[in-house]
Specification:
This protein has 82 residues and is of the alpha+beta class. The chain is built from two helices and three strands; from the N terminus they run αβαββ.
Length: 82
């Protein structure tokens, strides 16, 4: 089992936003990781994207301090259901 998993580019087309699809996709992804024994997930996002930050906050992600992150904010959370 790999110790790290990379999932890049999570985005929905505008017509499919705010309908629960993103939450369903992220929950399925986190659940799959959890079932495979991966205990935590982290991601990087553009700090200026406040809508994305609010989305990840609602999913239980928290900020991970990173020295000199540039234009990104790093977030993480456990994969176990909340």
């Amino acid at each position: 089992m790999p110790r790290r998993v990379c999932h890049r580019r999570r985005a929905l087309l505008p017509d499919h936003r705010r309908k629960g699809h993103g939450r369903s996709l992220m929950n399925a992804f986190l659940d799959a990781l959890n079932r495979k024994g991966v205990g935590a997930a982290h991601l990087g996002m553009v700090t200026a994207d406040t809508a994305a930050r609010a989305f990840y906050d609602r999913l239980g992600f928290h900020e991970i301090p990173v020295a000199d992150p540039g234009p990104l904010t790093y977030l993480g959370r456990r994969t176990a259901p909340m």
